[in-house]
Amino acid sequence: MNAWTWAVDGWIIAIGALSAIACAVPGAFLVVRRTSMVADAISHAVLPGIAIAFLLSGTRDPLFMFLGAAAAGVFATLASASLARFARIDSGAALGIVFTTMFALGLLLIVQVADRVDLDPSCVLYGAVELAPLDSILIAGSEIPRAALVLGAVTLLNIALAFIFWKELKLMAFDPALARTLGCRPKLMESIVLGMAAATCVAAFESVGSILVVAMMIIPAAAARLFSDRLAGVIVGAMIVGIVGAVLGHWVATSLAPGLVTGGRDASSAGSIAATLGALLVVCIIISPRRGIVVRLAHRWLLTLRIAREDALGLLWRLDEDGRAVDVAQLRGLLVRGSAIPNWLARAAIARLVRDGRVECAGNVARLTAHGRVEGASLVRSHRLWEIYLMQRLAIAKDHVHSTAMVLEHITDSAMRDKLAREEGGVGDHSQPLADPHGRAVPEAPGEK
Asked: Where along the chain do the CATH 1.10.10 domains lie?
């Protein structure tokens, strides 16, 4: 492990960050359109084009590489579409067949020309970002790596194309049908996105490899998608995640990995960046404010607690209706058996009701307060109205309506209760009180006499 220097480590981080920024624009469109596998297909399909360009030109000139990759990308697109159309194969399967075949062909070509052309198959697959600062160009008295210049140019090109066709690309990303209706030329927009992805793969393959470029293109955009529903937010977020992944990934490769591996050798920076991006995605999945695991668990816990509290209110109202009084321990036991919930949840629900002033414990006897009685009556009213509806309108047997009504009562608001009551004749006619299938009177709505 060597000390960091800007001439080497700084440029490695800069090249990794530029790769992530260049990949963020097409990656965001692919992720939003749910066509992320296209990036994998492109990164594999362009390999034979790059190999043929090397074979014909004998140089690593970016122009020849791009032309070869573009030709291979167009061929892969046409071949997969033709295979799906004429062989009646699913489009996803056709794409998989074409890009795996072309990838294998590219590997064979690279191995065959490796002795005659300065091309290492392992570098093509996994990249050699550590060596990128050695291939530099003198500009204004400063040595700038060629990879940084190429990636910078592709980044500017992607941003310019996204800016010029922003409205059309955004429509295609979120509503392809509307885009076609408005005449946005969907084939052209799709070709622009695929062209950006292909150009980015070509520019980044020497730095991060044809395989790891998929991680650079998809993972940051997928992580940003967890935080934003706006296309601009996804693009900016993908750039931020990519830059953070480049910095942390190179630190892992040069500072953390040598201490964990016997011999103290540095790890691959490109591989460490891709692995770090995967770790960042896991973190985003956990902490995302709307779709994250923590938020979903919190919502589920709050919903479970609310249902348990409402079950306790309904149970106390029914006990009071029968003239029965119970202590807190008995109430907890009835709630555990009747609602099939664990004892700790029943304890938490009752404690919350007491704290909120809906239940009071006088002499260890649990009773509803005035506010608790109103809510309990509303819940029982919803339950019994649903029992009537399920039996009369859906012809469900009387002994099968209770469990379904127990679920529906928790998602019924006052408007729904009034509608159910009107359908069952419970409003405007008090000569005969409305009763549920078991003969229990339906509680009156608050304010009714």
From this structure: 296-368
Of all residues in the chain, the percent with pLDDT exceeding 90 is 22
Kindly report, as residue ranges, where domains of CATH 1.10.3470.10 are found in the chain: 6-288
Cβ–Cβ < 8 Å for 144, 136:
yes
Topology at the third CATH level for domain 6-288 = ABC transporter involved in vitamin B12 uptake, BtuC (1.10.3470)
- How many residues are there in the chain? 449
Q: What's the whole-number mean pLDDT along residues 353-379?
A: 89
Percent of the chain whose pLDDT exceeds 70: 84
Residues 204-260 pLDDT 10s? 776 676 667 888 888 999 999 999 888 889 999 999 999 998 889 888 888 776 666
Q: For the structural domain made of 296-368, what CATH number should be given?
A: 1.10.10
- What's the rounded Cα separation, in Å, for the pair 167 and 220? 23
Q: Which long-range contacts (CB under 8 A, 24 or more apart) does 71-78 make?
A: 72/45, 72/46, 72/47, 72/48, 72/102, 73/42, 73/45, 73/46, 73/49, 73/194, 73/195, 73/198, 75/45, 75/49, 75/102, 76/41, 76/42, 76/45, 76/46, 76/102, 77/194
What is the reported pTM?
A: 0.75
Given a cut of 70, whether residue 127 has pLDDT beyond it is no
Could you tell me if residue 59 is left (phi over 0), alpha (psi between -120 and 50 degrees) or otherwise beta?
Answer: beta
- pLDDT for the residue numbered 429: 47
Instruction: Tell me which long-range contacts 176-181 makes (C-beta under 8 A, separation of at least 24).
Output: 176/33
pLDDT at 124: 57
